[in-house]
Amino acid sequence: MQVFKFIFANNAILNCTPLYGRDIDGTYTYEHDNGSLTYAMVKASSEDEAYRICKRIIAEFTGATI
To answer: Which element (helix H / strand E) includes 55?
Structure first.
């Protein structure tokens, strides 16, 4: 499993970076400020899977449907 860091702008993915040698508890964690996501860290087996999880985070945070 690999950890990926996502940076957001206006609750949309701006950047995704793999964090080698990093681990997190659980599948993901995210931070927000003033109603907007700032970043998320996602643990996944591939970058594609990490993007799918990240899209679920955005939907969960904004109340949107995927």
So the answer is: helix 47-62
**One digit per residue, pLDDT tens: the chain, 66 residues?**
999 999 999 999 999 999 999 999 999 999 999 889 999 999 999 999 999 999 999 999 998 876
Characterize the bridge pairing of strands 2-9 and 12-19: antiparallel
Do the Cβ atoms of 3 and 42 come closer than 8 Å? yes
Contacts (Cβ under 8 Å, ≥6 apart) of 34: none
Residue-number span of the structural domain to which 37 is assigned = 2-62
Q: Output the pTM of the full model.
A: 0.89
How many structural domains compose the chain?
1
